[in-house]
Amino acid sequence: MKVIEPHIHMIARTAQDYERMARMGTIACCEPAFWAGYDRRSPEAFYDYFYHISHYEPTRAAQYLIDHYCWVCINPKEAEDVAFSREVVSFLPEFFDRPTVLGVGEIGLNKNTRNEMTIFEEQVELALKYGQLIWIHTPHLNDKQKGTRMMLDYLVGHGGVDPGRVVFDHMEEHTLRPVRDAGFWSAMTVYPITKNSPARVVDALETFGLDRMIVDASGDWGPSDPATLHDTIFEMRRRGHRAEDVETVFYNNPCFFLGQCPKFKPQPTRPRAEAWQVAPHTAAG
Ligand SMILES: [Zn+2]
């Protein structure tokens, strides 16, 4: 089965991680723009970062037969300084023309402040103006639910946002329902130590269904591992789910969402309506 890694920070990973991912079946990966483990000291540092993920990483990934895509934005952990953030946002459109840039992300909230929200809203407007997909980071702190609600209320109240073109990432049991009910896509991130485990993610898929669901490993500079995505595939198989349903989650769903950007090359193996028609009880035994 071919696998797509929809959210990973390859800038922080070694070539050996690309090699492992290739061996495990990953044929494409997507790198949202995020924090570097430290705050950048100038807007130009972001320019260099976007240059790196949109020019250099695709060539590194290609050596392992992996297509590398990316997203650009000012991330929520560095969006507290509004003037600084606006300087970064001003040169994002330069990167929208790059052949591997999929949209604006991962934008969102970190501490749920007014300033973070202002920059979130301005980047949503920019994405709409340029017809870009949107990838949203929900806070990892205690107030994930509040931050998710703030962004959801804004997007629903906006009136001009197509929920089919927006993903809320780092979803957990308590935030999935409102996001799904409003028609947005959800992504769940698997980590080796903290937050979502493979078992929790498969529990959520069994509870909520497979439509508009994405799973990612979010490998970065902290405790994380690209293999957790493949551990989750194994967990879903181990519970007896049908091969075509596993493929829906780990290959076709990313194709359905990301394929709305014509630059994304992998093609789904089945039409969406068919892939999302899951028998009420798909697990064996
Ligand atoms: Zn991330």
Defining key terms:
285 residues; alpha/beta; eight-stranded parallel sheet
How would you briefly describe this protein structure?
With 285 residues, the protein is α/β, with parallel strands linked by helices.
**Which structural class do the helices and strands define?**
alpha/beta
Number of domains: 1
* Helix content percent band: 40-55%
Continuous helix count? 11
What is the CATH class name? Alpha Beta
Strand order of the largest sheet: 1-2-3-4-5-6-7-8
Distance between the termini: 24 Å
Strand content: 5-15%
Main beta sheet? 8 strands, parallel
The count of DSSP E runs of length 2 or more, i.e. the number of strands, is: 8
Structural features, described:
The chain has 285 residues and is α/β, with parallel strands linked by helices. It has one domain: Metal-dependent hydrolases (TIM Barrel). 44% of the residues lie in helices and 14% in strands. The chain has an 8-stranded parallel sheet with strand order 1-2-3-4-5-6-7-8. Helix 2 crosses helix 3, helix 3 runs parallel beside helix 5 and helix 8 crosses helix 9. The longest helix is centred in the first third of the chain and has 20 residues. The radius of gyration is 18 Å and the shape is globular. The mean pLDDT is 95. Bound molecules: zinc ion. Zinc ion binds next to loops.
